[in-house]
Amino acid sequence: MITRKSKREIEMMQKSGDLLVQCHKEIAKMIKPGITTMEIDTFVEKFLARHGATPEQKGFNGYPYAICASVNDEICHGFPRDDKLVDGDIVTIDIVVNLNGGLADSAWTYPVGNIDQVGKRLLDVTKTALYIGIEQAQAGNRIGDIGHAIQTYAEGEGFSVVRDFTGHGIGPTIHEDPHIPHFGLPNKGLRLKEGMVVTIEPMINEGAWQSKMDSNNWTARTVDGGRSAQYEHTIVITKDGPLITTEQDA
User: Fold this and answer.
1) CATH, domain 7-244, list 3.40.1110.10, 3.40.50.300, 3.90.230.10, 2.60.120.260
2) I need a surface site. Which of 61, 69, 149, 197 has the fewest CB within 10 A?
């Protein structure tokens, strides 16, 4: 069922989003060769607890960690681990914050040290694709408008769009209807309405779009070993256009 959020619920989700932004800004300072994603996981758990919040994905369907940390060819749902990040890696940190029942969800791909030019382009195109998708998140538009805009741009830049994982509604739980694909046809799909809250989170690959699953039954990675990047925001559909609750530049 698709729920449209009240003003009070949106205010709660915005407060959660503000905290998530603070958390990502602290993580950005930590990302450098030699750090482990397990250290980042520990930091996030302590940071949220200190601010009266919890990592919503920990325990969700049995997921054991506070963050997802996906390195290089991992598309999403990578497990934090004790291996040190090295110069040239890229790592996506995905966090869902629950602050007094309000949820916010945002992923960000970070370069580790110095990355090559293709890697830089992959990150730039993926982030731009996110905002191109957000521009289409207007009341009265259809879900296909978002995916079409992202796919057209990303493929036009020579990259591919993951099909197996999508954005989604959020609140009161992590994954609510509707699904928000990052590919598709314009003027197709559910019509967006004021008060809906969704995530837009394109996962863009430098090679093929297909994925394969690790033996942990969580982590998806590219089939050809190409790198994958992801940027994600939580978006409120309003009469005045999309409101980003997790905007880091606000």
Assistant:
1) 3.90.230.10
2) 61
- The rounded distance, in Å, linking the Cα atoms of 51 and 67 is 17
pLDDT digits (tens, 9 = 90+) for 17-64: 999 999 999 999 999 999 999 999 999 999 999 999 999 999 999 999
Is 105 annotated as ligand-binding?
yes
This prediction has a pTM of: 0.97
Distance CA 239, CA 231 (A): 24
CA distances (Å), origin 228, targets 18, 208, 209: 26, 10, 9
Query: Can you tell me the distance from the alpha carbon of 48 to that of 63, in angstroms, rounded to the nearest whole number?
Result: 17
| 116-144 mean pLDDT | 98
CA distance 126 to 103: 24
pLDDT tier for residue 1 given thresholds of 50, 70 and 90: confident
Which of 202, 135, 143 lies closest to 178 in space, CA to CA? 143
- 232 annotated ligand binder: yes
Distance CA 103, CA 14 (A): 8
201 annotated ligand-binding residue: yes
Phi/psi at 203 (5° precision): -110, 115
